[in-house]
Amino acid sequence: MGSARQSKLRPSLLEGLDPEQRAVACAPRGPVCVLAGAGTGKTRTITHRIAYLVDSGHVAAGQVLAVTFTARAAGEMRARLRRLGVEGAQARTFHAAALRQLRYFWPRVVGDRQWDLLEGNKLRLVGQAANRLGMPTEIEVLRDLASEIEWAKASLVGPDDYPAVAGRLSRDIPEPAARLAELYRMYEKLKNDARLLDFDDLLLHTTAALEEHSAVAEEFRDRYRCFIVDEYQDVTPAQQRLLDAWLGGRDDLTVVGDANQTIYSFGGASPRPLLEFTRRFPDATVVRLERDYRSTPQVVSLANQVIGAARGRPAGSRLRLVGQQPDGPPPRFGEHDDEAAEAAAVAARIRELLDAGVPPSEIAVLYRVNAQSEAYEQALSEAGIPYLVRGGERFFARREIRQAMAALRTAAAAEPDGELVPRVRQVLAGAGLTESPPAGGAAKERWDALLALVELAEELAATTEGAGLARYVAELEHRAAAQHPPTVEGVTLASLHAAKGLEWDAVFLVGLAEGTVPIQRASGDGDAVEEERRLFYVGVTRARKHLSLTWALSRTPGGRPNRRRSRFLHGLMPEDHPAAKLARPQPKSSGPKARCRVCGGALTATMEVKLGRCATCPADLDEDLLARLREWRVERARQLKVPAYVVFTDATLVAIAEQRPTDDSALVSISGIGATKLERFGAEVLAVVRGADGP
Ligand code: ATP
Ligand code: MG
Distances in Å between the alpha carbon of 448 and those of 386, 398, 630? Predict the structure, then answer.
């Protein structure tokens, strides 16, 4: 890149970037990998990189294909590119990109055999398949079966290989693997017979078209030359294979991601391609970003603490974020009697923020599962606060939206082209959209939802030249399938998964109780708990300034207070916070009060006291250290001619391997180690913990 070339650039383009970000933006074409934490400007950097490459004449905008994982994030990327003045670069989700390509290449690959997207009918088809095979058809089971089929397809595992792979990975599934394979096969057959494609098929078929049809591949590769992937830590094998087919042996690929934000492992995603990028492309430019431009130091510090407790492979790549924003308020913690009380308190606090001038669109309530939204919808409605549920089925499941879509479909069939926005307004007027909003309540909510459809039409008209009703309805169908509702001005209610990549001034993380965060089904499995921890980290790092963390002790008003706050909150609360003390009812025994080092709750069972944590709280056991401690104990017991347990019991060794004490005082705080043992073995044990050789 000569300076003559650079001088043609708009000077502002690189000014908004720090030196490392600039290095990414200006790197020559070829492999580039950015490994960086939340809020460090990854997304900002890649949009600037695209603008830079285009401005400096390295590539034409139309040759750029940028992909990410949620439709909302892709929309955000398109908006940022537009603001940078880049016209014509594609920014899409993997699925949307594949859908577009498949539509285009299909006639050449398959001929005129038509197909449709399966969209919302998937569970029904899985149900039909289950029914034919005499398998259970309860909706919860079907959901699990459907997501297992999705996992298999995303992981490029076909029905024939499924039993062996599922066995090897000990997949937790509701049916025997061989039966599931039969169901998978039946589902595929029913789907093919009906000429339907599911979401995963879009990736698989597009990949096949590129891999098997050289003319298709040539045309594609001539068209797209420069590839960018955001949130690369969540790539699935099926997506990676499509990406490889796009590249076709070329290496003009920029990837950015944060392994500590991997939150789709359960769906087959893996941070491995990100972490092993330089192995695949030894010449890659690699950049790490540490400065967090999003959040206040108060939020950043909490985020660092959350991810600092992580274990496992992604944790090895974490970097400490360094906050760049001015100081803000400390994060707030709140323990409530029940969920309704929690939701009411959140709504009251949101009211305060709104009164203080924070716009509703800059506030989000994030929860673990979509079912949690109901309590917040109710509390916000009661408080007269506008809101929008994102990432759920709800927007498209609303009655007025279903009716409006039916009307729009009919109108599109009659007149597919023509001026979009006035047509949409006209159709929606028939579906109940009045000129001015009704006063409050459910009617206002319906009005807001319908208005969002108009705004979507405006957005489409602004970004896609000549888009008519047919194109608009296709976009709606696609969004309905992807559960990506359009924007409504209001407080965002979203699941933690749907919040990835986004940011708000104020974030409320709610329902932070054991069983919800981490989710019940993850509790027994170390990897699954780690994924939940990363999900919590994603939530924390969405906040620019105001962060609230709340939980409820019981589900229903007057119910038994049988819930405990999430283990992930351990150590985050200031010592003097009232909730820090009243974690659990005190035991009656008058003995020394042991407390769980994970959740802070009182310990009563002997084994729990020994371990220093509740049996249900997660162990962060260092297996390797435990093995070394056992070896040391065998040797020492042999020397002393005593049984091994006289040196230390198993429970004590486990406690040492979990707590990794670094000094005498940490060591004596472990149950089973008193003054005598400390004197006899303390130095040796600490040496083993440090990794030095024993005696
Ligand atoms: P995530 O991991 O959550 O996706 P990210 O690394 O993609 O985060 P961005 O969303 O790109 O981060 O940036 C976070 C915020 O910081 C944005 O508001 C962005 O505009 C801002 N930002 C990024 N880099 C800079 C910079 N050099 N100067 C000022 N603001 C910046
Ligand atoms: Mg991002």
Answer: 9, 12, 64
pLDDT at 608: 72
Nearest atom in ligand 1 to the alpha carbon of residue 45 is: 11
Q: What are phi and psi of 337, to 5 degrees?
A: -70, -40
Whether 2-99+203-289 shares its CATH topology with 332-393+486-569 is answered yes
pLDDT at residue 594 tops 90: no
Cα-to-centroid distance, 69 and ligand 2 (Å) = 11
Instruction: Pick the range with the lowest mean pLDDT from 168-172, 267-271, 519-523.
Output: 519-523
Tell me phi and psi for residue 293, to 5 degrees: -90, -10
pLDDT at 517 over 60: yes
Q: Model confidence over 399-444: pLDDT tens digits?
A: 889 899 999 999 999 988 888 988 999 999 988 888 877 765 667 7
Q: Find the DSSP H helices in 612-649.
A: 623-640, 644-647
| Residue 45 Cα to ligand 1 middle (Å) | 8
pLDDT in tens, 178-192: 999 999 999 999 999
Q: How far is the CA of 541 from the centre of ligand 2 (A)?
A: 11
Question: What pLDDT score was predicted for residue 6?
Answer: 43
Contact 16 CB / ligand 1 (< 6 Å): yes
Site to substitute for ligand 1 among 14, 274, 293, 503, most atoms within 8 A of C-beta: 293
- Site to substitute for ligand 1 among 13, 24, 43, 232, most atoms within 8 A of C-beta: 43
Confidence of residue 606 (pLDDT cuts 50, 70, 90): low
Return the residue whose CA atom lies nearest to atom 4 of ligand 1. Answer: 501
**Chain-wide mean pLDDT for the chain?**
87
Query: Residue ranges of the domains in the chain?
Result: 2-99+203-289, 116-194, 332-393+486-569, 396-482, 623-689
Q: Of 75 and 256, which is predicted with more confidence?
A: 256
Nearest protein CA to atom 23 of ligand 1, as residue: 41
Distance (Å) from CA 540 to ligand 1 centroid: 15
Ligand 2 centre distance from Cα of residue 103 (Å): 29
Q: How far apart are CA 94 and CA 317, in angstroms?
A: 25
Residues 6 or more apart whose CB falls under 8 angstroms from that of 336 comprise: 342, 345, 550, 551, 552, 553
Instruction: Judge whether residue 345 has pLDDT over 70.
Output: yes
Report how far Cα 440 is from the mean position of its chain's Cα atoms: 33
Q: Give domain 332-393+486-569's CATH number out of 3.40.190.10, 3.30.450.20, 3.40.50.11190, 3.40.50.300.
A: 3.40.50.300
CB 440 within 8 A of CB 470: no
Structure confidence by residue, pLDDT tens digits, 80-100:
888 888 888 899 989 989 988
Query: From the CB of 72, is ligand 1 less than 6 Å away?
Result: no
Structure-token match 């004596």, residue found: 668
CA 421 to chain centre: 34
Which tokens in the block code for residue 302?
């909490």
Count helices and strands (H / E) in the chain.
31, 18
